[in-house]
Amino acid sequence: MRATIVTVGNELLSGRTVDTNFTFLARALGAAGVRVHRHVTAGDERAAILAAVRGALLDSDLVLISGGLGPTADDVTRDAMAELAGVELVADPAAAARIAARLASLGRKQTAVGNRQALLPADMAQLANPIGLAPGLWHETETAIVCALPGVPRELMAMTSEVLVPRLRARHPDLAPLPVAVLRTIGVPESEIAERIETAGLDLAGVALAYLPGPGGVELRITGPEPAAGPAAERAADAIAARLGAAVYARGEESMEEVVGRLLSMRGLTLALAESCTGGLVGFRVTRVAGSSAYFAGGVIAYANEAKTALLGVSPALLTAHGAVSAEVAAAMAAGARARFGAALGIAVTGIAGPGGGTPEKPVGLIFIAAAGPAAGAAVTERHLLLGDRQQIRERAATHALDLARRSLLDPAART
Amino acid sequence: MRATIVTVGNELLSGRTVDTNFTFLARALGAAGVRVHRHVTAGDERAAILAAVRGALLDSDLVLISGGLGPTADDVTRDAMAELAGVELVADPAAAARIAARLASLGRKQTAVGNRQALLPADMAQLANPIGLAPGLWHETETAIVCALPGVPRELMAMTSEVLVPRLRARHPDLAPLPVAVLRTIGVPESEIAERIETAGLDLAGVALAYLPGPGGVELRITGPEPAAGPAAERAADAIAARLGAAVYARGEESMEEVVGRLLSMRGLTLALAESCTGGLVGFRVTRVAGSSAYFAGGVIAYANEAKTALLGVSPALLTAHGAVSAEVAAAMAAGARARFGAALGIAVTGIAGPGGGTPEKPVGLIFIAAAGPAAGAAVTERHLLLGDRQQIRERAATHALDLARRSLLDPAART
Q1: What is the C-alpha to C-alpha distance for residues A334 and B380, in angstroms, rounded to an integer?
Q2: What is the pTM of this model?
Q3: What domains, with CATH codes, occur in chain A?
Q4: Among partner residues B20, B281, B340, which is closest to A284 by beta-carbon distance?
């Protein structure tokens, strides 16, 4: 099954909004075994949407449209679907009733604007929207399915997994994805990973190996050539993982914060944070994981030096002697967080994210991270010099801090 | 001038790589006055690239291709350009010499793989690549320009600003962007904003109004119909802003955290945070702004109840009486953050982000936010019931917390 995805919106074409809906749909369809072979972004114009759909119908089995089903005048996907099917838009009593009931349950009144969402192509099949007001639309031509889903991301996500994919599977019971084994690495550049794999004499015949470098490290994706090739992909991933050792932090699509959470849970330990340049990002990432309250005690965002002293007990003398961006202060911050929150493991990060504040001795991108506990003895500190702009440096600093937590929890010497 | 952007790469179609090249090109062309009216993502196949380009030539003055000019076998944009022009790929001595010189300066040897980059469509104009090995390609049909640029982001960026845009301007001296006025709103649903605007009898003739709902509120973009229509767009924005009142937090593309930072700087005040369910996100957003150390003292991520008591001075009796998710605890957290950090304004957020932890009385999505200071008197608290999954609830809670900071700083009663 070959699919074209059409995402609709002037805000996408202007580059003002990053098209996360496309990314989501491409992954969801790929995981269901549908091959996405083209993506078109069209503006909020009926003719532009129609042209994209008609072009896609030449070589696609599925045309999936996202967006343009909302209540405002620039939402014209309904109009395009009606023209495609050669029917009129008519007020749909059932849709109107659902909208009225939904609005009533929210304590809002029906408005003329909202009512536009009940104008639907005559006799066209609808897909239930479990969490929003606009139903999806489903139209079949002689050769293809044309499906329109709302562009509100959470509605799109819910409808894709709960309605669209089950419906595609019911229609095409043989849909199956190519097997993919994933390894996530940190701390080793892409070229060195490639070198290590290529010089290892591994037998990777029949699988495709892709390198995806990102701010959190390099992800390796090993894809089998056919749906039944799962074991071959897994064997290849095993061989590569053995070659790369501790640089691999996850087998599969586990995030670094999920790995850290799993290690903390397994060992019954708690975590506390002390963040300076990351400003709360490490805590935000740790608490992305549902259930993190079981092992995350809390953190201090110690942006000002006074806060490092008052809330983390970092001595003013230490700050004066070494500066806030130093291994010594990082270690004191980690120990302070551990003590103040009564946690088993304290992790700290301090650095210069820029664009200002750098010096020849302490340039922008210099960060220190530290771990205190769970092993006895002094805190572990690390120095990294990170590339990128302010946000990239902060993202990378947070990843290194989480990775230090991971390695601290793996370290046999640290086992309690 | 109407443009179609074609980005090339299987990694884009799979949704594994977010297409930042498109976002960059759309913004750069828009700023130069080129209207991007379609975006197509094609896989690494000559036929797919050609189909996208030929479709675009039907209604575009410029077709801009990014990617597929590299040295490996899956880089086939050169082949597609040659077929489009009806010429052969030939070894280009000048390009080969440039590649050899570049490799020599890097201390690398010429390889057969690298040499592919010197195979170029016969007699096709080239665009110099100031920082990479692959030149761009420039082909003119009777009606349009077809230009191919490398997909390596920093090469693409450099060639766009240094080569492509100057060349387009030289060819079309009347190129000028359409004027856009931006209003950012928070706290009012899209449908209600539309209703308020549509029932106000505003004269919006001649401008285009787009609604961009997002997790941070609804952005309104008012676009003038021609380069000289800037005053008309601004007048329309003035009229809409007057109608929407305090729901408008920014005129222009200022973020909520930039608005809060500007208000703090203007008034010479400092901010401290106490975060529970947002886990550090509010602090992360505040510190996204370069220079935020001037007004941001720091924050406490008080995830566990013990942390709320130990680090923010929230009394255990208060926690027992009202629960951690309550207006009373939010107020105590805000006051505690203000006091512990010695800041003028303390902002707190506590809530249930889910998926677990909800009860009939305190469901998932319930959050309380509080502001302490800068006015005298008790803290201000607000209750919100937010929709979405864990991450969306956290994003929205952070935005409401920042907005409460904004309104606290705007409040005349709060002026020191």
Answers
A1: 34
A2: 0.82
A3: 2-171 (3.40.980.10), 180-251 (3.30.70.2860), 258-414 (3.90.950.20)
A4: B281
